[in-house]
Design a protein that fits this description.
Radius of gyration: 20 Å
Helix content: 25-40%
Shape: globular
CATH architecture of the largest domain: 3-Layer(aba) Sandwich
Largest sheet: 10 strands, mixed
Structural class: alpha+beta
Number of strands: 17
CATH superfamily of the largest domain: Thiolase/Chalcone synthase
CATH class of the largest domain: Alpha Beta
Number of helices: 14
CATH topology of the largest domain: Peroxisomal Thiolase, Chain A, domain 1
Number of domains: 2
Length: 388
């Protein structure tokens, strides 16, 4: 049975800050952000876009009325939960109008959680081939104004419909996960922002990649030459490149050139969005599919990583005609039509988001009626605008 990604889409808020201007405001050489970590723009989330609304916006354009009748499970992967008990998946299930006899829940393990969600969906569909699973990775990456992690913030969501006989990617039965208890990045209960051991986090990422890749290569008897391209978790675009560089010398020159070139295509969107935690790997996958010429039957390798830490290397095979399922023009318009905000305004957005202070006059425009957004909070209950 062929199971995998049938449809995929992403959503980001309509605001961004220019990384060169942020660097200047922080009295840092702009090249530290533009070249050092490889980021050009950073998505800025208004308080009206939380993980529920962003997730619903990512999903709304890819699921049909027929899909809603067959979705048996909705999983939200996030480390930006808005409630300690109620799953965002329940709210998204309601907003999208999915049939009521469905399982809905959240998954958590830092930036890794969307990957076990997909693997769980795959196992579920093996037993129920007529059903579908909606997996949503939705996050707002926040480290604090003028913090060390500030330039690696971002916001966005990726939605994936997992089904039998998929139209985009077939998931192969070859995943290898690697777990190590390490405090490289964590957010204890009650902390507004995460705690980060920067150097340790980079080392833990590289180690997790090397361990999972080496075990994968041993089990599957594969080399880098077996892959058309590789996609990585992308907290910032230079991170995945460091991981790739750590093993690429094992490959022949042709493979090195192909994988290096493919990596740049795979992080193009991430460069203009920033870190979206659970969705970063899958935003990179969309970027690869939409910015590189590929063919059905080719194999893509994917490395997922979540601090704490869990890493996983797995592969997927492109389906013939996959490009018909992509929305290249829509995605480029989504990015290109965003509004730049000044560093001062970005800081105001950031504070309002922390304090849950609505300012629809500043943050909303007429075209927002076509999207989901957080309209109000009454008695600690979030109320969302539903597009007509």
């Amino acid at each position: 049975m062929s199971i995998g990604i049938d449809k995929i889409n992403f959503y980001v808020p309509k605001y961004y800050v220019d990384m060169a201007k942020l660097a200047e405001a922080r009295q840092v050489d702009p090249n530290k952000f533009l070249i050092g970590i490889g980021q050009t723009q950073m998505a800025v989330s208004p308080v009206s876009q939380d993980i529920v609304s962003m997730g619903a916006n990512a999903a709304k354009d890819i699921i049909t009325d027929d899909d809603k009748k067959h979705i048996g499970m909705v999983i939200v992967a996030t480390e930006s939960a808005i409630d300690n008990a109620k799953a965002a998946a329940v709210q998204i299930h309601n907003l999208l109008g999915v049939q009521p006899f469905a399982r809905c829940f959240e998954m958590k393990e830092a930036c890794y959680a969307a990957t076990p969600a997909i693997q769980l969906a795959k196992d579920y569909i093996e037993k129920r081939p007529n059903e579908k699973v909606l997996v949503i990775a939705s996050d707002t990456a926040r480290y604090g104004i003028q913090s060390g992690g500030e330039p690696t913030q971002g916001a966005g969501a990726v939605a994936m419909l997992i089904s039998n006989n998929p139209s985009i990617l077939e998931l192969n039965d070859d995943a290898v996960a690697y777990t190590e208890d390490v405090y490289d990045f964590w957010r204890p209960t009650g902390h507004k922002y995460p705690l980060v051991a920067g150097a340790l986090s980079k080392d833990a990422y590289i180690k997790s990649f090397q361990e999972s890749w080496n075990e994968y290569a041993r089990r599957e008897d594969k080399t880098l030459s077996d892959f058309e391209s590789l996609c990585f978790h992308v907290p910032f675009t230079k991170m995945g490149k460091k991981a790739l560089d750590s093993i690429i010398n094992d490959a022949d020159e042709t493979t090195q050139e192909r994988l290096t070139s493919g990596y740049e295509d795979a992080v193009y969107y991430n460069r203009y969005v920033g870190n979206i935690y659970t969705g970063s790997l899958y935003l990179s996958l969309i970027s690869l599919l939409e910015n590189r010429s590929l063919k059905g039957g080719q194999t893509i390798g994917l490395f997922s990583y979540g601090s704490g830490s869990v890493g996983e290397f797995f592969s997927a095979t492109l389906v013939e005609g996959y490009e018909k399922q992509l929305d290249i023009e829509g995605h480029k318009a989504l990015l290109n039509e965003r509004q730049e905000v000044s560093v001062e305004d970005y800081e105001s957005f950031f504070k309002r988001f922390d304090d849950l202070e609505f300012d629809h006059a500043t943050e909303q425009t007429d075209d927002d009626k076509s999207i989901y957004y957080l309209e109000n909070i009454q008695d600690d209950i979030r109320q969302y605008h539903i597009p007509k």
